Amino acid sequence: EPEVTQTPSHQVTQMGQEVILRCVPISNHLYFYWYRQILGQKVEFLVSFYNNEISEKSEIFDDQFSVERPDGSNFTLKIRSTKLEDSAMYFCASSIHRGLTGELFFGEGSRLTVL
Amino acid sequence: AQTVTQSQPEMSVQEAETVTLSCTYDTSESDYYLFWYKQPPSRQMILVIRQEAYKQQNATENRFSVNFQKAAKSFSLKISDSQLGDAAMYFCAYRSGDSNYQLIWGAGTKLIIKP
Predict the structure, then answer these.
(1) How far is CA A4 from CA B23, B41, B49, B80, B90, in A?
(2) In chain A, N or C: fewer CB atoms in 10 Å?
């Protein structure tokens, strides 16, 4: 069964460093998402992406964050200068359709620890 | 702003018995969608069941069913004949009818199945 895969599963970085989290969505999916979950808190929406551009983003997704689909298979989340509060589990998801018919398929998550 | 509340951080149930997980939400919208996602340990979140707010009939998926009370803004999940494989974190999520992408999440309920 096709799955969304994420790498790395865990990354430790120093504050101020750039981090790239990678995701390989399901191959025929067209919509891509990033969510995050800070330890002990709720899952939060970051951004959605379709047709090589951002469709929707939350207030969390500020100028420190960027997404791209560089090669037609990977979907990456970049954090330019990490802060302590960026420590969280980051979930990538994809869907074939938009809206309710577009069931989201999630990856297992990438845990980011900022020291 | 919409919020989703899961008041039970943890629930346990004997194998083969029935358990109900609670979810309430707050919204001023009339058009929205509700979801239950399951996250087994170290695995990705998967969609369990979804409900369109405009539908009066409660959604069912095999052993999983919901009790959707629109006026009370309640969306509970009932798991019948609980199995060991049902052990997971269960997340309730809300999506606005206007937003095609952003899910708003509850804090989750950890379900423990006792053999």
Answers:
(1) 27, 16, 20, 29, 19
(2) N
